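Problem 12. The chain below contains 185 residues. Write out its predicted structure in token notation.
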Amino acid sequence: MNEFVKLKKENDILRNRIENLENEIEFLVLHPTIAQGLKGERFICDLTEGTLTKPQASHDITLENQITLEVKFSSLVKQGSGESYRWHWGKPLGQNMKKDYDFLLLVGDKDYRYDQYLDNAPFVFFLLPLNKVKYISASDRTYRGGQLNLNTHFATVRSPRGKELIQYMVSSSKIKELTSGAHKD
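Solution.
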């Protein structure tokens, strides 16, 4: 095969790859919540050396010791016209409320205006066993699958569910410890 034909074939392959990548980027731009979720899942997967599950599975990550995690990510969400922000994590129990996992790991962008975090990781983490998720999340007909909301300034949290959620804040090193099975009870 002469050099020209070889380069043309390579160029066609690369053009096809670029087109596929551009389509993926367009999809993620048009569906930012999917991109956000993948961001959190990938970060936690790397942190724990876990394995991502297939889409529509009953959990997101399986650790080497078989602990299962559902991961939800939230950026900072502005509340009204004031200076308040919150995190919002939707459907921790799944669309049909049939998610099955050992722990829900809530990941949120830090609100750096407040000195209230456990470590210097770029995110704040809340690690809840499944039986606590059902209580803390608001799950009724309006919010099928549940939802969790929390003010980013912990001193302003008034609701009992919000205060309890804060108690489940963990450092990134605690998340790494999950791989040892120390939290499996």
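Discussion. The longest strand covers residues 68-74. Students who got a different answer should revisit the alignment rule from Section 12.3.
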